[in-house]
Design goal:
The structure is a single chain. The protein has 254 residues and is mainly α. The protein has one domain (3-247). The protein is 75% helix and 0% strand. The chain has helices spanning 3-11, 20-47, 60-86, 100-127, 137-140, 147-181, 183-196, 201-221, 224-247. Helix 2 packs antiparallel against helix 3, helix 4 (100-127) packs antiparallel against helix 8 (201-221) and helix 6 packs antiparallel against helix 7. It is globular.
Length: 254
């Protein structure tokens, strides 16, 4: 028996963890969480005598609020409407131990992924004849350098959001597609969906290729923590780099 066949037999459950109904319920829950979150934000904004549209304008508060809302909506829906409703544990979604060998592999892969994803975004911008500006700059650094934005975005955008996205896209969507349709359909479709939610084309293309790497790492390490760590390291390093450049007066809009 080959390594692939052995791993395939180990990673597919006879009784799939997720079904169509689970996927639809979790997605519906995410939408509801977002709507409730925007309602709460709207009430808070009204109490401070401001316009609701301000939540979509570039500011540290709006960026951190939206990042927090994404984390709560994704992680909350997966946990409440997925794991808890079905009586599953965190291990059932892949959050089990990671071996030392895979931990070292994760660090190596992260070092390669960071410049690779940046190169893919840059190539996409060049092909589209767009300015070489990070499309997420207004969201990540909306008011230039300040410590609240730097620390808050590092915690939320660098750690919390990657964790929540991995729960959904690898722990639920990839695992469900993998069990239903096989390895590569699961990888490609889940990665495509992961790219779509990033909206901007240059970020979406990079996210698609990142999704492929994350799904493969999850598949062969058999631990969702591997994908979470790579995703978090990728985001965190880029956020730290952006804020460091801004702190030293580098104009990133050129």
């Amino acid at each position: 028996m080959s390594f692939y066949e052995e791993n395939r037999n180990l990673s597919i459950d006879k009784d799939p963890t997720w079904h169509w109904s689970d996927f639809l319920l979790i997605i519906a829950g995410i939408i509801i969480f977002f709507l409730l979150g925007f309602t709460v934000l709207g009430l808070v904004i009204q109490l401070t005598n401001r316009e609701f549209s301000e939540i979509f304008e570039p500011s540290v508060i709006s960026s951190l609020s939206l990042a927090m809302l994404e984390f709560l909506a994704l992680a909350g829906s997966v946990y409440i409407l997925g794991l808890r409703r079905k009586g599953l544990s965190w291990k059932d979604i892949g959050l089990n131990g990671i071996s030392t060998r895979w931990l070292l592999a994760v660090l190596v892969i992260s070092v390669l992924v960071i410049p690779l994803s940046g190169l893919i975004s840059a190539l996409t911008l060049a092909i589209l004849d767009q300015p070489m500006i990070n499309p997420q700059l207004d969201f990540l650094i909306p008011e230039g350098f300040n410590w609240m934005g730097a620390i808050g975005m590092f915690i939320l955008g660098g750690i919390a959001v990657p964790f929540a996205e991995e729960l959904l896209f690898r722990g639920v969507i990839y695992k469900w597609l993998r069990q239903s349709w096989g390895l590569w359909p699961g990888i490609l479709i889940s990665s495509f969906l992961f790219g779509i939610v990033h909206v901007d084309l240059s970020i979406a293309v990079a996210a698609f290729f990142l999704g492929i790497i994350l799904a493969l790492v999850y598949e062969y390490s058999r631990s969702l923590w591997s994908a979470v760590l790579i995703h978090a390291i990728n985001n965190s390093v880029k956020i730290v780099l952006l804020y460091t450049l801004i702190a030293f007066g580098v104009d990133l809009t050129l």
